[in-house]
Design a protein that fits this description.
Blueprint (H helix, E strand, L loop, with lengths): L5 E2 L4 E9 L9 E9 L8 E5 L10 H11 L2 E6 L23 H17 L8 E5 L2 H12 L8
Parallel strand pairs: 4-5, 4-6
Antiparallel strand pairs: 1-2, 2-3, 3-5
Length: about 160
């Protein structure tokens, strides 16, 4: 299910973070995010969220994350939002429960993942934050631009 922590061949650190989701009284499962970071994060580094599609998981965009991290020195984050991926199926990491709120709380999960990573990497340039997503992940990216309008340089 989870990849081991450590460095990859592209001089980047790979690790996961887990944090409590919003609305834990109704949904007590923690949220997990995959994080790829350059071995040395400088004040010129940006950060980029990669948000998976409905039924996908935090590893769906790993190839793109590795490219952006390795070639552009970005900290890359993929948050496995509630009710999808390994949260839905702990063996395969695929599938999803029925949609429940048009992505509102999922968007908060993803934005909280970014917040947690920025706490871990305070040197990241806050003017170089980007968000990429496809399908449900694209919807969440658009909602993140609405709910946090001064956060991202591009979505």
């Amino acid at each position: 299910m989870k990849t081991p922590s450590g460095s990859s061949a592209c001089n980047m650190k790979t690790h996961e973070i887990t944090f409590d989701s919003v609305n834990t009284a109704v949904y007590p499962k923690p949220v997990t995010a995959l994080v790829l970071a350059p071995d040395r994060v400088t004040e010129k580094a940006g950060a980029m969220l990669f948000t998976h599609g409905w039924g996908g998981n935090r590893f769906q965009h790993r190839d793109k994350m590795e490219y952006v991290c390795g070639e552009h020195s970005f900290v890359c984050i993929s948050v496995e939002y509630r009710m999808s991926g390994y949260d839905f199926n702990p063996v395969t990491g695929l599938g999803a429960y029925l949609p429940y709120d048009a992505g509102f709380l999922q968007t908060l999960d993803v934005l909280n993942g970014l917040r947690r990573v920025l706490e871990l990497y305070p040197e990241v340039d806050r003017g170089r934050l980007f968000h990429y997503g496809g399908s449900q992940g694209g919807w969440i990216a658009l909602l993140s631009a609405i709910y946090a309008p001064r956060t991202f340089a591009a979505v």
